[in-house]
Amino acid sequence: xxxxxASFRMIRLLTREFEVPVPxxxxxxxxxxxxxxxxxxxxxxxxxxxxxxxxxxxxxxxIRLRNGIRSxxxxxxxxxxxxxKWVGPFLWLTIHYDHQFDAVGPSRTRLRWVVxxxxxxxxxxxxxxxxxxxxxxxxxxxxxxxxxxxxNRGGGR
Length: 157
Hints:
- This protein has helices at 24-32, 122-155, and strands at 11-20, 44-50, 60-65, 70-79, 83-90, 93-105, 108-119.
- It is an alpha+beta fold and 157 residues long.
- The chain has a 7-stranded antiparallel beta sheet with strand order 1-7-6-5-4-3-2.
């Protein structure tokens, strides 16, 4: 390693895995509408995504949290129907958010959300980030599952 250059390894901050009672295409469609996340993720005030609509390979945007923090993201990896990974800054860290989809059967989908970090202080500040984000996910995941149930019963658009 040269003088003045630092090498930071990626570390896993958290993984959440759960199943939803819909086919994979429906789970993808419902989660890919990121502007609607505030309906079930109460810690989010608003999501702006460009281009508008479902996320795609060229998506970027800003998630505005209820506590006033803004989190920007840019798509890093996109495999339609399988996963998308976007990346955004937090302090001097780079956070990687991977949204993965696996069919469990014809009418069930396993979702896996993986969050990694890299950058100076990732082990220390990453733990802090993961602790806060984990609490948000603990509330958002059951709310997302309930939201899917509501959409299945015809309560959605």
